[in-house]
Amino acid sequence: MNPEPHSDLLLSVKNLKVHFQGVGPVAKAVNGVDFKVRRRQTVCIVGESGCGKTVTALAILGLLKQPPAVIAGGEIFFDGLSLFDLPASQMRNLRGKRIAMVFQEPMTSLNPVFTIGDQVGEAVLVHEEVSDDQARRRTIQLLYDVGIVEPEKRLNDYPHQLSGGQRQRVMIAMALACEPDLIIADEPTTALDVTVQAQILRLLKRLKQDKEMAIQYITHDLGVVAAIADHVYVMYAGVVVEQGSADAIFSKARHPYTMALLDSLPTKEKRGQRLYSIPGSVPHPAYRPLGCPFHPRCRYCEPSCEKAFPDFFDYGKGHEARCPVLYKSGVGEKDR
Ligand SMILES: Nc1ncnc2c1ncn2[C@@H]1O[C@H](COP(=O)(O)OP(=O)(O)O)[C@@H](O)[C@H]1O
Ligand SMILES: [Mg+2]
Asked: Nearest CA to 280 among 265, 294, 297?
């Protein structure tokens, strides 16, 4: 059932489970994930590499290769449509017209043998029936919108003639061509240096306002989250462990994993100090520990954490975290 008909709710992911079955035990890459994206909202999904962020995005987009992937449970609603019940043709249509995506490495998403003008123009033509001349003008406008200088001169460039940042701008122009309600951006700035990254983040923020889109932004970097997010979901080992407004996550995190990510974030105050790094690594999805999946790396771990993985504890205003130890002890209660 559509959870909130006629509301500002755009995307709703409910108890999503994606497994990979190879030889050996099942890898529960996404193990019961819930989140929501509202219209015109920027929602960040943050977590270390291997937490299931990309698999979640691919499930929403209907781009998971099945097999090896299996949708083992859950529902996804986009503007009231149940995506798992949608025929493939309608899903393709939705992907081209209402949900757009921007991935990490534009070099693999742009076709090296076609010019920038051809590729953005193609995206325009998929969206609307216009003459070649109109498509060209719209292409130039889109390239201008994403900050490509003198776009009419760049139409005949090939992807390899552009810098990494410019290529990512072209990818964003292609995503905008369909005037989407939602852009899913999966680590779009990870391969870029910090200055260019900051420019792209500013661009996305501006575009979100101008075009009234929602953005689901996936990253391993809380620094990026700080720059762009309205609402944050912290993912660890295939589950969401904490969610809240960007303000709540940065000022009063209540899950040890979120706190550890914050501690490993470089800040001005920590300049010159050795940065904290979380001990250990994300467990492979086929070999997760029992109980809370973070407990082997957690500085607050208690014996009960090895037995059961608790549900969310509510901190008000949509902020909730799955750690009973901090909930009971009040650690983290005072603003950090
Ligand atoms: N095609 C696949 N076959 C088997 N395991 C996969 C496949 N794709 C992803 N996984 C596993 O699913 C887990 C989550 O991956 P992913 O969503 O890419 O993580 P993230 O994007 O958070 O870094 C990882 O452990 C990864 O190895
Ligand atoms: Mg990923």
From this structure: 297
Four-point Cα dihedral 73, 77, 78, 80, nearest 10? 160
How far is C-alpha 141 from the geometric centre of its chain's CA atoms? Answer: 27
Cα 27 to ligand 1 centroid, rounded to whole Å: 9
The C-alpha atoms of residue 178 and residue 200 are separated, in whole angstroms, by: 19
Whether residue 169 lies inside any domain: the answer is no
- CA atoms lying within 13 Å on the CB side of residue 234: 29
What is the reported pLDDT for 268? 79
Q: What is the CATH number of the domain that holds 322?
A: 3.40.50.300
Average pLDDT of each block of 10 consecutive residues along the chain (336 residues)? 70 97 89 96 96 96 92 96 94 89 76 92 87 92 91 93 90 90 92 86 90 94 94 97 97 96 87 86 93 96 94 95 91 54
Q: What is the pTM of this model?
A: 0.92
Structural domain including 250 reads 9-98+180-329
Which H or E run contains 197? helix 194-211
For residues 39 and 181, is the Cβ–Cβ distance under 8 A?
yes
Would you say 64 and 55 are in contact if contact means Cβ atoms under 8 Å apart? yes
Q: What residues line ligand 1, using a CB cutoff of 6 Å?
A: 20, 27, 29, 47, 49-55, 68, 284-285
Ligand 1: which of 55, 70, 284 to mutate, judged by most atoms within 8 Å of the beta carbon?
55
Tell me which of 19, 48, 54, 236 to substitute to probe ligand 1's pocket, judged by most ligand atoms within 8 Å of the beta carbon: 54
Q: For position 5, what pLDDT does the model report?
A: 56
Which residue(s) pair with 31 in the sheet?
A: 17
The distance from CA 272 to its chain's CA centroid, rounded to whole angstroms, is 31
Q: Whose CA is nearest to atom 9 of ligand 1?
A: 55
Question: How many distinct structural domains can be found in the chain?
Answer: 1
Judged by its nearest atom, the ligand closest to the C-alpha of residue 19 is: 1
